[in-house]
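# nightly structure sweep
# worker-07 picked up a monomer target from the shared queue
# config: single-sequence mode, recycle default, output format = structure tokens
# input follows
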Amino acid sequence: MKIASWNINSLRKRQDRLFAWLENTEPDIVCLQETKCTDEQFPALALQSAGYAAAYHGEKSYNGVAILSKTKLTDVRASLCDEVVDPQARVISATIGNLCIYSIYAPNGQAVGSPAYKYKLKWYARLRDCLAKKKDVAGPASGGQLLHKKRPATSEERDGRSWATQPDAKRVDLATGRVRPNGGLVVCGDFNVAPQDVDVHDPQLWRGAIMCSDGERAAFQQLCEIGLRDTLRLHPQEPGVFTWWDYRMLSLQKNRGLRIDAVLVNESLAKKCTASGVDREMRKGKDPSDHAPIWAELKL
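# output follows
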């Protein structure tokens, strides 16, 4: 299964690029950020014709997130789990097969120490707390009992074409009696943080700046500390692999970029990650997004 994440920086403006990329690369799941369109403007029918179901959460001109999938999406939620009302469309989650998928667009922060920066760190804390609660979906937990429920195979499974071929497995929490799915957790998006110096074209120049400050990196690291793995770093990469380049100063041509997008997975899925990378070519051409898609392949 191939899972990709792309800050498309205006879906309406780059819809043709998206559809051409989907046709050429055929990802199973795509998380989009900065769609910058209302739900009424989202091209759901066109995507359906292209073979993708969609869940989306947008607003006019700013932000906006979506999840595209070749298979059915359920349990769609356009917020974090803390029920805090946030007018900014930055999060959407859905269940696809036995996977819980998040598409997130983290706040930029504007400048270190600013009110926007403080909002960014608080937003990260909310995201971390929400994902920590979702750890139940990431695999077996201690003190539980597995139950396997047999079901008839679908036509796709009989033909060997479906990645969701495992029998339904659920875990009963002996403490609470709740039944929990035994699947995986995937968090994709534009995190607006370069997690390490290797993710920055000039670490010294960017030291302490927005997207590279100690506070932002610590916030990203806390996501890893609850059990998420950065799939790009699970496999060797050439030096200078980035996902964002400024439109100015020939940044792409000089490869003066940052890697601020990621596909994070829980530990059980990390063991099944066979490849990862960045589609740098999508940053080229006429009127591109300033981001390139990042992707991971999982053997499920």
